[in-house]
Amino acid sequence: MEIPRDTSPNHNPYITGTTPESANPNQEQPAVKRGSLDILLVDDDQLSLACDKLLLEREGYRVTAVNSGELALEYAQIRHYDLVLMGLTLPGLSGEHTAQLIRDPLGGAVSPRVPIIALSSQTGDRARKRCLKAGMDEFLPKPIIWEDMQHAIRCVLRGRNKTQAA
Questions:
Q1: Which residues lie across from 125 on neighbouring strands?
Q2: Strand partners, 139
């Protein structure tokens, strides 16, 4: 028996949910005009990095994608970002440590007020609490559900986490 495969250009087996093109047109709109946001995307998994970057760009966001905490800090020092999407298991500096360095006012914070959303294969309340303690604003478990990412982005840009918004 052959298993049917979705070969449409919008199908991605690594991200669940609808893609921007197939999303409900009546759903809640972004907090700010699409295309007006610069996002720093940090993930050590090259496939996740490429897929997330593509989906975000299709939504109209300007995305800089890097694969380490050190590169994230370098880019954050030379350019203003409206949002950081941060993987946790990175080579060198972890995502948690990178977030702390971005936020640390005593260590010459790179961008103490930029919203940071953790993207993690670690699940559960313990991982979420560690991320929030490190200064991140929100936590999304992998695999990423596109609607959850959109909702988290809207919420952190409005100054609240998605749990408060529900």
A1: none
A2: 118
Reported pTM: 0.75
Digit-coded pLDDT (tens) for 121-136: 888 888 899 898 888 9
Q: Residue 27's closest CA among 158, 164, 154?
A: 154
Angle 23-161-92 from CA coordinates, rounded to 5°: 95
Distance CA 40, CA 38 (A): 7
Q: What are phi and psi of 151, to 5 degrees?
A: -65, -45
Which domains, ranges and CATH numbers included, belong to the chain?
34-165 (3.40.50.2300)
d(CA 138, CA 136): 6
Backbone angles phi, psi at 95, to 5 degrees: -60, -40
The Cβ of residue 65 has, within 10 Å, a number of other Cβ atoms equal to 21
